[in-house]
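re the bet — no i am not wrong, look at it urself. input seq straight from the record:
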Amino acid sequence: MKKFLAVVIVLSFVFIGCQATAPTPIPTAPPTVPPAPTATSIPPTNTAVPTLVPTDTPQPTPTPTITPTKEPPPPVSRELLVGNWYQFDLQAQGNNYLLFRENGDFQGRHGGVFPGGQLVSEGTWKLEQDELTITDNKDCPDGEFYRIKFTTKTHLYFTVLGTTCNNFAEGFNRQRNWDRVTDTQ
C-alpha cells in the first residue's frame, strides 16, 4: 500500500509540474526553397545514342515436337501371347506360371521355377481378338473366358469375362498382372 501511495504522489507532482510551466515557443524560420538546377549543377550523363543493328527478317518460333515418353501398348496377338508367363501369388506365397504353346496347348503350374512346381492345370487355349478361352478338359471342360491386354510386350493383364468352373478365375481376379519369363529369371 505504501508503494502505491508513493507512486500516486510522484505522478501527481509530475502532472502538476508539467502544467505549471509554459511551453517554450519553437522559433520558426521561413521555408527554404532549393535553387533551380543549372547546367553546371547537373552531373554529366552518358550521351551515346543507341544505334539499331540490322538483323535478318524475324522468324516465327518453331512449334516444339512432342515425343511420347513411352511406347503405346502393343495390340493383342497370338505371337505375343505364346510363351511362359508368371506372377507371384501373395495368397499362396509362391510363383504361378502359365505356358501358352504355339500349337494351342497350355500348362498352369505353381511354385518353384518353371517347369518345376506342381501342375495345376493343362489343356487348350484359343484367342479371338482380345478374348482368351482356356479349357482344361479334366477340371473345366466348358472353359474360362478372359479379356487380355498387353501393357508392354512383357506385361499381360487379365480381366475375367465368365467361367463355369473357377479354375483360374478366382486367382486372376485377385492378381491380374502377369510378366513374361525372360532368360534372366
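see?? The longest strand covers residues 140-152. told u. also The chain has a mean pLDDT of 77. so pay up
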